[in-house]
Amino acid sequence: MHRIFSFLMVLMLFSFTAHAAQVAKHLPGDLTLAEAMTVVNAALKKSQEQGVPMNIAVVDAGGHLKIFSREDGAFLGSIDIAQKKALTARYFNMSTADLGSASQPGKELYGIEVTNGGLVIFGGGELLIRNGLIVGAIGVSGGSVAEDTVVAKAGAAALK
Question: How far apart are CA 136 and CA 52, in angstroms?
């Protein structure tokens, strides 16, 4: 009985795997790995020009981590910040700097940074847009807010 059950499970798994191989594995409105690498490489180039080691995270259209790069010497604490900047930008379809402006005391979105497991609401998170469609976001951390923003914008510009 156990062997028959095991055989049926293997048969079902094989059938599912064969079916999954026929299904498209990449949605047309999503970021490709090649695009994500282009974004990271442009961001790394700008980071190296500034001389500040950075953590660079790129998420896809669904907000899932697509690629991550940590330069030698980049702050360990900035790993989480870079990822959250990318996620924050994608969650709200705006740069983290713009969200930060809207979330100051007395503003409409005050306190938003404590939602969604913690958001980052200062510069360094930018949307990735292809042909007018948001396909992901980049988050950069490791320098000043201005340095992070310049690097994130350089990465985002590489996709256009």
Answer: 24
